[in-house]
Amino acid sequence: xxxxxxxxxxxxxxxxxxxxxxxxxxxxxxxxxxxxxxxxxxxxxxxxxxxxxxxxxxxxxxxxxxxxxxxxxxxxxxxxxxxxxxxxxxxxxxxxxxxxxxxxxxxxxxxxxxxxxxxxxxxxx
Length: 125
Fold this sequence. Notes:
Elements: H1 3-10, E1 13-16, E2 27-30, H2 34-40, E3 46-49, H3 54-63, E4 67-70, H4 78-87, E5 90-93, H5 98-107, E6 111-112
Parallel strand pairs: 2-3, 2-6, 3-4, 4-5
Antiparallel strand pairs: 1-5
C-alpha cells in the first residue's frame, strides 16, 4: 500500500507532503499515548492519532515515521504542520475515528506494528 492508497481509502485530506504520496507503507500504529508509540514502535510506519500537539511530531522524528494520520477531522496548528514539513513527513487528516481508520486500513491490507509482548492467555485480566 502507498500513502496515496491510504488517502483514497480514508477519504483523507493531504495537509503536508503531497510530493511523497507514492511512498510505500507496510505497518501502522494507532495511539494517543506517545509513550506507547515510543515503547512499541521500532520501524518506519504510519501513526494514526487524535492528538494534534507538538509531541506527536517529536515522536515521529525520533522514530523516523513516514506519515501522520490525524483522525476525527482534526487539523493541527500551522506550527505543528511546519515542523512536520521540516521533517519531511506526510501529514493527512481523515474525518473517520481512529478505530474506523484502523479498521478500513486493515481491511485493505495494512497491518499493525508487531508488538513483542509476552502474555499468558491463562492469566486472569
